[in-house]
Amino acid sequence: MSDTRQTTDRTSRRGRMDRRGFLRLTGVGALAGAAAATAAPKRAAAAEGDRKPNFIVIFADDQGYGDMSCYGSTKLKTPNFDRLAAEGMKFTDFYVTAPVCTPSRSSLMTGCYPRRVGLHQHVLFPHSKKGLNPKEITLAELLKEQGYATMCIGKWHLGHQKKFLPTRQGFDTYFGIPFSNDMWLPAGMSYAADAKLPDDLGAEKRKAGERKRSVVPLMRDEEVIEYPAVQATLTERYAAEAVKFIAANKDRPFFIYLPHTMCHYPLHVSERFKGTSGAGLLGDVIATMDWSVGHILAALKQHGLDEQTLVLYTSDNGPAPGSAGPLRGKKGSSWEGGMREPCLMRWPGKIPAGKICSEVATIMDLLPTLAKLAGTKPPTDRVIDGKDIWPLLSGQEGAKTPYEAFFYHTSQGQLAAVRSGKWKLHIKVPRPRRRRPKKGEKPKPVPKPPAIALYDLEADIGEKNNLADQHPDVVARLKKLLAHFDAEIEKNARPVGLI
Ligand SMILES: [Ca+2]
To answer: Mapping DSSP to helix (H, G, I), strand (E, B) and coil, where does residue 105 land?
Structure first.
């Protein structure tokens, strides 16, 4: 009984807030303002109660659908991920837009398919001359406009040149490595006066960069502060930065975007966590990432911000070292294992606790959904592919996915598949991986995949039974959706940023 009453109270509170948000958005509030001067004190008080929510978006690197105990891992113990699931919502059908790092991140920041913003062709490297176009309106920029304090902590990977850095894309401040941890030192970086550098990194090398694999710079804002970045302690240092930022901004709305460096190869773990998981190096690395969630939640509680903060945890693509659980394929493939991710969202009092959402939702939906919660809207002068998924998040009765169709791309950005309802049609069926022959064994030829493959994801989550021949009508319908999407995005694609 008391639970029902609580839910009703929360719903009506939300209803009041939504109406005010609507007035703000439509401008009706402003028009009425001059005529209603006497109502001013009441409005001010209401605004106080309407404090915009904080957002903490944690984006793991290469963590798979099976790399949490709340997603079925029996090897890993992940009490803090599990806590997010118990105190929030767990998504079973949450997708990223690409099976590799850069394109997936571009979708989080812009609310668009990577092809829409020109960042679909694999990942950026230290020699790349492009990045996220500064003309794009990022989630951070939308929130900053709404008075948010914004910080990016971790692996950016949307361009390491100054004009593409987080500090030029809506973040007040940045701490992290500019791309993947297996890359190297680019030419032409700026160095802090007190940067920790090896003695032999003279002016010439700094200008030219240094091509040592898996030796990467750590940056603060726009300058290198440490090279080589001590990778073993990065996950803990990221958590410390987040906790510091929470404390410094506890009295105003804030947005923390924390894209982890782990668990991308090469794996690193600190002495403190080494050997603690009983599940090998990957287990220790994931235990550190799990600990980081607990550390951040403790800071929210300490500052009384639990009920004002939406915490979201997901991963940028499928597993490289880890597990995709029941899904087929891994990082780099358009099988479900490459692009369907664990996703947990917690906001006590607003997102129902312990609920499972099995509707299709995507990384592109963060921008429109968080924009709305912050009292603004996505840009209207360009196509935004993501959708407002608040009806799903808030547990509205009967809420359905806003997607008639979701589109998968290869790691090189080619249109690969579509999902509509329970059906998924591949038009670029991934080639099976070549198995390394045993000593003395002749290498076996890799069988050629079929031209198309149709799967019923409800009955066959592991994409094993190709039903294309049995359902020509479904194939025809999905092919039409693919053709329509392809033509539209070709027409309305925007240019990538160039230096
Ligand atoms: Ca990745």
So the answer is: helix
